[in-house]
């Protein structure tokens, strides 16, 4: 789209005077990067929000003690420049950087880490995701730059979890004084950008943190930020978001709808970039306590009937990859020897398996056994209607009747606690195999988030072994064995593997998107204007 | 007239109380649970319980409603359960942009519709009439989101107008350029019905006795149409425009979402989706009050246009 062409069209469209007005109106301020997204967070408090929309801004406003390399496999220093783990795997000692200051100028010390963690772990407090912190015995600060983090039982995943945004160190004094307004009216952090203002559901403005110099070297720029201001703008309508990027009103977004990828790919002014590793898997879960689903052969038959490749191509326009495992094969502790054959699309196998199990084809075109039709109930999100339709179509072709019930994201979590469905569809983010396995398969998590009702002693044993492992080899061994065992049990049908794609416009230089928690813009240290 | 206005205001209060109750009950029916939403997909039962307690959602629904009403009566709309923002402050912040958008839509749409209607009435049966009617039928039947999206496509290609957001107050160049697209899209809702109504009532009025008399007295055509005919035709038009303000508010919810306009409509949609009861209630009360206010204004205007209405009752 050439400049002369657009300006002449503008004159045609709106008249010379109007074009003169709007030429000034559409242009963005020097040094400002505007990022578009479709929804806002409830609040910007890392301990009270579970939203991606909160995470992505909080990573710019605050730091964690440790972070992860681009491939999410190595723990890298951040606010802690080094750390040690005791031999029993219970005591972590973090040595903090001494040059860190908050946005308000206050020096960062070990007391702030202790204060942050104490607030988060307050029993009965309105805080979220505290399980990520492990079974904490005590967190103390022997001096200003040392934090001793003691656990009651070893947690091999703790350092990885500590890279998550919930571990962002806040200013405990500010949190205490602001109460419910913390993360709404103000947020004092140690991040590369400082909170300037927030108008909920409209925009959030961040200003560069002058003097920031403690970024993680392995992730690029260590600071200070190369742009003066970052504006996070809410544009609820996808089509408007796409148009805003085209028109240069925003510089980047990760919320591009799948149908718009092709047009930006074709336009040399725009680039689509992805993190090295960032994991989100879409899957269909199977409730093993339901009549038909108790039978592993029926579960395998269902799995073979669904064509995930077609879903990836037709619904996501090939912007996501079809998945054949519960979690990415690139994730830490995935065992490459895991048998993934049960998850391939193969309707002939469905037929063979059902016949083997004594099903007969009824005159209505559906399989039946002992006079009962093979009819299943499926719960899904109303935002994934097309996926549900595709799955329903695939299963119908294979002779399995599917009753689809779709719910709004605000209502589905309560529905998913019911025992009245056989299949459910959702997607989830994770850092590595251990993270994924811990979330869903433990018998302690019945009925939610272990919605499969998978109650298995072997699983619990291997999970405990993996979690309490004090070295990488032991952890990898246990989690690999567990992953293999769970894949053999056929509890999910993996559908898609999604990586966030960031679309950037001509003002922004290409950068390496971040992978943790799906917050692709990361700390914002690598944002740079042309 | 003052007494009648007071009586209207009294009735309006009852209506508002009804809106409040129905709004509250409807929000209870919606399965959205803010505590579950805050805790996220991986939230544990204990966490959800703790959040619910913190937000006061563990109390019986009836008690919650009584508390809410007792606060609203004292003028305190409460705080958002999602981000603790004061509901009144958020409403005030959002009301400006919404009123601005509706006014901007009406400023161009009402005169345009009147002009089109007058033109059609004068050339009744002619090609101009057919054209105007075709356009207004289109205006009535084309949904506002579709027009909005078309405009956005056009603007994205030509870069002639800003696509999203509010640029500032209406009187600044920035503010004016930002409101152009949303106000055009929203105003289109109004043009069709008003143009049609103007055409019908005006062509009736043009055949009335007093208009013939005016013509016979040698009044100019302009004077006849604007002063004699249009004046009598104005009454149903005013009523219609008043009613259309309701439609306009509904359209504003859509328009605000499409053009990322930070108004009450988006506030209402956002808070209903997240289960933010106090904020949603506040937005509903605001929209209902605005509707009532417009209706009272229409009555007053009708009385001014035709003093007989006042003396009759």
What does the overall shape of chain A look like?
Answer: globular
Number of domains of chain A: 2
The CATH architecture category of chain B equals Orthogonal Bundle
From the helix content, strand content and strand pairing of chain B, which structural class follows?
Answer: mainly alpha
Number of strands of chain A: 22
Determine the strand fraction of chain B and express it as a percent band.
Answer: under 5%
Low-confidence stretches of chain A: 1-25
Q: Greatest chain-chain interface? A: A-B, 62 and 59 residues
- The first-level CATH class of chain B is given as Mainly Alpha
Helix content range of the residues of chain B, please? over 70%
Shape of chain B: globular
Describe the secondary-structure layout.
The complex is a heterodimer of chains A (530) and B (313).
Chain A: H1 3-26, E1 32-37, H2 52-61, E2 66-68, E3 75-77, E4 80-85, E5 91-96, H3 110-120, E6 136-143, E7 146-151, H4 158-161, H5 172-178, E8 193-199, E9 203-208, E10 229-234, H6 238-246, E11 252-253, H7 261-266, E12 271-273, E13 279-286, H8 296-305, H9 308-314, E14 321-322, H10 347-356, E15 360-361, E16 367-369, E17 372-373, E18 375-381, H11 385-397, E19 401-407, H12 412-415, E20 423-430, H13 433-440, H14 457-468, H15 472-489, E21 492-498, E22 502-504
Parallel strand pairs in A: 1-10, 1-11, 18-19, 18-20
Antiparallel strand pairs in A: 2-3, 4-5, 5-7, 6-7, 8-9, 9-10, 11-22, 12-22, 13-20, 13-21, 14-21, 15-16, 16-17
Chain B: H1 2-29, H2 34-39, H3 45-55, H4 61-73, H5 87-122, H6 127-141, H7 144-158, H8 173-206, H9 209-216, H10 221-258, H11 264-273, H12 277-305, H13 307-312
Helix pairs in contact in B: 1-12, 5-6, 5-8, 5-10, 5-12, 6-8, 7-8, 7-10, 8-10, 9-10, 10-11, 10-12, 11-12
